[in-house]
Amino acid sequence: MEMILAPDQKLKLPSKAENLILVERMVEDVCDIFSIGEEKFGNIIISVTEAVNNAIVHGNKNNPNKNFDISFKSSPTDITFVVHDEGTGFDDNSLPDPTSPENLEKDNGRGVFLMKQLADKVEFEDGGKTVVLRFTLN
What we know:
By secondary structure, the chain is an alpha+beta fold.
């Protein structure tokens, strides 16, 4: 069963880790439709699941009464995924560099670092409550 969303349709889910499987299925379906290659698919699935995990854990503080939503849109040149949470937001410029030696043992900033490495463009909107991940189609 495909779980594809229509343009501008959102998947709205409670902040529970088990809902990551639904997000993964949606990403797989989108990538199948657009014939995304294996390497680009890997970048997309990791980036989107990191964004959703951050929304659940950091944005909504694992509160199942708060929701996150995910949507996607496409153009002839790219696919964009948008993840939004109900948290208070954050300043992505204030995150510590997870690659510097003093931060290697800490567990913050890695997800954003990964997204910035793997997506072609990452934007934070709404005070950090929304992440926009853009991937170019080759």
